[in-house]
Write a structure and sequence with these properties.
Helix content is 30%, strand content 26%. The protein starts with a strand and ends in a 6-residue tail after the last strand. With 220 residues, the protein is α/β, with parallel strands linked by helices. The protein folds into two domains: 149 residues, 3-Layer(aba) Sandwich (Rossmann fold); 61 residues, no CATH class. Helix 3 packs parallel to helix 5.
Length: 220
């Protein structure tokens, strides 16, 4: 579950509020979407939900706990994983990349790495240097790395932008199945996808959060 109450955010050395008075609640599981043009605040909101950015105003609840930036933020970050639009690869092999979030949680299991790689069709790449892969392959590695530790909240920023149609369909199916037991929030320009596959969506424009539609209506 994610709950934001009166959240405001602006970037350092800027007088422009990217997010203003954002209040919303998302449940503990299901697939939801963020829609809107570039520059409307979608990525900023995802990074706030992923506890990568600290808002100047407002409160955040993650997995039933109110975020305290001095005491429990590191622990709550383990509930959520954010995936950048541009894949970020760590040094080393694909295997090492998928292992990383498991290692920092103390739950590394070799079979979990192989199982996750197989799910995304990248098992043959496990011993390849991750930074030498194509952009589409790196996107699959980033998604596999995100799902491997089974986060309760998965935040995806344009996760299909480097994928062909067949791979896109496969990843959508994986995400839909994963959302049966976790909250998945996807930033995208694909309105059709959001309306057809999601349980709801939030729409942002240049003024910030403009409106929400949930099936059934859920947001505050």
């Amino acid at each position: 579950m994610i709950k934001l109450d009166d959240v405001w955010y602006k970037y350092p050395k800027s007088d422009f509020w990217v997010l203003k008075n954002v209040s919303l609640t998302l449940p503990g599981k299901g697939l939801y979407f963020l829609l809107g043009p570039n520059g409307s605040g979608k990525t900023t909101l995802l990074k706030i939900m992923g506890l990568l950015y600290k808002p100047q105003k407002g409160t955040i609840q993650i997995c039933g706990k109110t975020v305290d930036w001095k005491s429990n933020v590191d622990k709550l970050r383990r509930c959520t994983i954010y995936v950048h639009e541009t894949p970020v690869m760590f040094r080393g092999t694909v295997r090492r990349n998928i292992e990383y979030p498991l290692l920092i949680r103390g739950i590394v299991r070799r079979e979990q790495v192989v199982k996750t790689a197989r799910l995304f069709g990248i098992e043959p790449l496990l011993d390849k240097p991750a930074r030498n892969l194509s952009r589409g392959q790196q996107q699959l590695v980033a998604l596999a790395r995100a799902l491997a530790p089974k986060p309760k909240i998965l935040l995806l920023d344009e996760p299909f932008s480097h994928l062909g149609w067949n791979l896109r369909k496969r990843i959508i199916d994986i995400i839909i199945r994963y959302s049966d037991n976790a909250l998945v929030l996807v930033a995208t320009h694909d309105t059709y996808l959001a309306k057809e596959k999601g349980k709801g969506y939030l729409y942002f424009d240049e003024h910030g959060l403009e409106y929400s539609r949930f099936f059934p209506l859920f947001v505050l």
